[in-house]
Specification:
alpha+beta; Jelly Rolls; four-stranded antiparallel β-sheet; 22 helices
Length: 603
Amino acid sequence: MTQLKKKLNLKDLFYIFIILVFTVTVAVIDSGYTEEHNESSISMEIGWTDEDGALINLSKLPAGNSVISTELPDQEINDKRLCLKSIDTFFDVSADGKEIYSYRPKIPKLLGRSYGMYVHDIYIPAGAKELTLRAEPVFKGKSPLLKDVVIEDAGEYMTDLLKNNILAFIRSSITIIFGLILLILGIPNGILSRSSGLDLISFGTLCVLLGFIGLNDTYMPQIITQMPAAVRVITYICLIFIPYPALSFFSSASGISDSKIIRGSLIVCMVNFIATVALTYTGISDYYHMVNVSHIVITAGFFAAAFMVGSAIAKHTIRPNLVRSLSLGLSACIAGAAIDVIRYHRGNINGFSNYSRIGVLIFLFIMGIYMFRDQVRALNQKHKENITFINEITAAFAKIIDMKDRYTNGHSSRVAKYTAMLARELGYDEDTVQKYYRIALLHDIGKIGIPQSVLNKPGKLTEEEFEIIKSHTTKGYEVLKDISIMPELSVGAGAHHERPDGKGYPKGLKGDEIPKVAQIIAVADCFDAMYSNRPYRERMNFDIAVSIIKEVSGTQLSSEVVDAFLRLVDNGKFRAPDDKGGGSTENIDNIHKKFGMAAEKKS
């Protein structure tokens, strides 16, 4: 339990605050929800009388069959219709004793006894004075459910229906879309699943099932498909299978790869499905009654999920951040379900799953944040591993380069160090500085392809030999250009002997045509060529080396980089700790011209 005792950081507190604000906002909106209709609509909820003459409220009909009547209002009702929503209720409507509408759909045995929920608009004959309604609940002992009964234009009624259910529709649609995205990401390759340690396929399936159940309460699927009974059955089937993907998700989150609980939940779901379909088809029971079994299984699933998470915490197989996310998400789901159960038993059946849907959406929101943050963490970790790998590889190759050229041992690492110093002075961020350092380490990698007899020749080079030495830039570029993880590595190798005046090689680039990193490496490379001890000579006097670099600024070397070099020199940089003012005072093979052949060979 020590993982739970870790303090929440500021980011965690911020996310919790956002979640609370979201929860309160949605709850306030839902608590103030009422059905709204056009001002021209006429409410028909009250004013009905039963056969004994007692007043009846249409929204509170007694259990069993009902026959009720009402006088039509004196208001103009031409082109308007009697609009209402019915839930598992067969009914007939008569005007002045003549039947004008009957809704008693024939439902296939496989779909059960009821049709679920549906929306009706009923034509009222001109001049009609009285309406009579005969209502019969599908299930005995239940009350007929006829909601939101008005006389209104049918188009306006449907518009109001959409407007009144838009929040629930959006919430459910978001849940479904989120689930489909997870399935798209999880099914083909499972990249996010492997990085976050979560089963995205199960989570995505769970989201789709929950989203469709939420859509059922908005009446939209029933209206679009014109098949309310089929929508009802699909909703119950979604409810039946929810425990399996839910527990599979919690199993992956808890680090349990093979669990009897998961296999058991699948068996229970399949048995529940087969039993529900069989009992419904034979008429022994119905989806409506068997939903109680699904509720029991889901409740057991909650306890099983809590057990898996608790076991994972005890065994330290679950990340602390994931524990917090799962705990917050589960708490939101349980709280939402508890509120809805209380409201339902108090008789508030309008939007009876609102808070459950809010809890589910909060859970998805929390887990979405966790997966996003965890994916960023995984990518950052992968990036660090790649950088470490690149650093190790470049350092190893730099040693190989220096091992081949016995005259310049340590040259590559020194040039890389000087390059990093110059890049910082020029104002580059630390990531760029480190990238330039790695590029500089391999600037002479092409020398591996130069014959040993030419590379280590003690005297001056012939023109032909010099051309061979110059080819190390092209060879280095060809070696590095196909390294996709860091294509910039080839830039330094290919262009560090280019010159601002266009007299460099291999391409004769001028000024800003030369990549910036190559301009920096060129200064570092030339300084080290002069200011380093070689077996055949002593390093050049520091002040002379600095004066030569200053002299060739703008022609052989970038003036901007040279200026940065001179600033560092003024600040006491670049001079070796053991430099007491000595060193060679001779130029290195006509270095004033173009650093000469010997200098080119050694640098």
